[in-house]
Amino acid sequence: MAAQLRVRGVSKSFGAVAAVRDVSFDLHPGEAHALVGENGAGKSTIVKMLAGVHRPDAGTLELDGTALALTGPADAKAAGIAVIYQEPTLFPDLSVAENIAMGRQPLGRFNTIDRAAMVAQATRLFTRLGVAIDPNRPARGLSIADQQLVEIAKALSVDARVVVMDEPTAALTGVEVERLFAVARSLRDDGAALLFISHRFEEITALCQRVTIMRDGKHVSTDLLEDTSVDEMVRRMVGRDLDALFPKQDVTPGATVLKVEGLTRDPVFKDISFEVRAGEIVALAGLVGSGRSEVVQSIFGVDPRDGGTVQVAGKTLKPKNPKQAMAAGVALVPEDRRQQGLVMELSIERNVTLPRSRSLSQLGFLTGSSERRSAKEWTERLKTKYGRLSDEVGTLSGGNQQKVVLAKWLATGPRVLIVDEPTRGIDVGTKAEVHRLMSSLAAEGVAVLMVSSELPEVLGMADRVLVMREGRLVAELSRAEATEESVMFAAMGQEATV
């Protein structure tokens, strides 16, 4: 079958950094094609070239054998290329129908917008997708899953022949992922060429027929999924065998460092009590919405609480007081690194040193040399890839942004490290590095509290697993007791043994 879209020898550099070098692959109609690689491999740059955001420095894009010269996103849309990002870009105060028709609103009498036709078009598209979304409701308040379905409806409205899905499932629940995949399969079966970017191999094998692997900005291989394996894909992505994705060291836990008693915030969570000892990794598991993130944010003092106490090394922390928590040696790596973990407009070095700017200052002034020296030490320790430390942190890949967040807090020398979804949206190689770092910190006596929705991560890294359901702690499992079945039974209410 002839290729719908051909990427031929494309290269793109940003200053001295070569993001993509001589990459080629084909997208075929009626086929889902996975694009995988570690963070920083060049996947996002490829996506932005297809979207018309970046122009290749060399090489060509060809649609149905004709070279494309995309000068902006409008050109990509006109050519039938639709890009659905991990974070949808809807106008929140416009209706769903208005978002779908943006830039192509149907006109009625007197050259005014025909709102009835606009709503009718949206209704037809949602019927085709098999989803129930009110076209008249504002986009504000839609779940991430529904926002992505609106983006897919936009793609259908322009008869997109190439649909690019960039990490579309990162923030979705299992049910939402299945619904999205049903829609994606429908698009594929109707003849669209899908390019699917994901770090989750189970999703790639469930949806895709072909896979292209990138490493360090270069094309490594393109294969049919049936001709390769997950192990082989991982080896090609990282250029080496991963000796262990979960390198858990055996550590004898010491004294209790973090003690939580009766922590309550109605109606989000109630009567949460547990301890974390020095050298121990404790996982908070449960379904999305069970209250795990809210609990750790309350422990750190970001969110309020209605009752209960939090103690660190015997000292009681005041509610809603992150400054006191930091002074006591608590560090929180939040789930949303872009919104809560980093100041995207500031440099890498400034982000790394933000919590310690006072201690690094001399006579009240923060010198560039002390800041740079400290930032360099920690970014190198975490093997962070960047151009210059003075670059904005927003220029880094997702995995390297996560490393900067970790560097920022690890440099404070914490007694208690709280990590909320530490490896969400990062590649398998970086995951192994983060896991190795968590294990080595525990071996040094740090008490680690981890929130994770990935069961293999929970089972591979935790000494104990605490399971939450509907705002309550319903089970505590030792490492020997914790299995996928026991954790999920507790999370879903089929077993509740504390």
TrEMBL record:
GO terms for cellular component: plasma membrane. GO terms for molecular function: ATP binding; ATP hydrolysis activity. It is a peripheral membrane protein. It is found in: Cell membrane. InterPro entries: AAA+_ATPase, ABC_carbohydrate_import_ATPase, ABC_transporter-like_ATP-bd, ABC_transporter-like_CS, P-loop_NTPase. Signal peptide: none annotated. Keywords: ATP-binding, Cell membrane, Membrane, Nucleotide-binding, Repeat, Sugar transport, Translocase, Transport. It holds the Pfam family ABC_tran. This is Sugar ABC transporter ATP-binding protein. It comes from Kribbella antibiotica. The lineage of its organism: Bacteria, Bacillati, Actinomycetota, Actinomycetes, Propionibacteriales.
